[in-house]
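Researcher: Structure for this, please.
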Amino acid sequence: MNSRLAGTRAHYAQVMEKGSPAKYDRDLKLEALVPVVRGELPVLVFADRSREIRNAVEFCDKQKLRMILAGGEEAYKVKDLLRSKAFPSSSGRC
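Model: Predicted structure, token format:
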């Protein structure tokens, strides 16, 4: 999945910067991710378990994406990791 995302990301970046989108098959779902890939919008990640949170942080680091953690029931278990990366979080609990 990571190599597919990287290839798609590169393709869309090239289309948006150098070519006319009319010359390519359009995928509106992927086009909606362009602001995320450019760093203009963060990815909202729903993860509760510490393993899921670590995986999401690793993925976003590798892809150079900004991330907001939603949920995060076990975020206290990986608080040092989250602090080191300065990811904002939203527990959704009052």
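Researcher: Any notable elements?
Model: The chain is about 50% helix and 15% strand. The radius of gyration is 16 Å.
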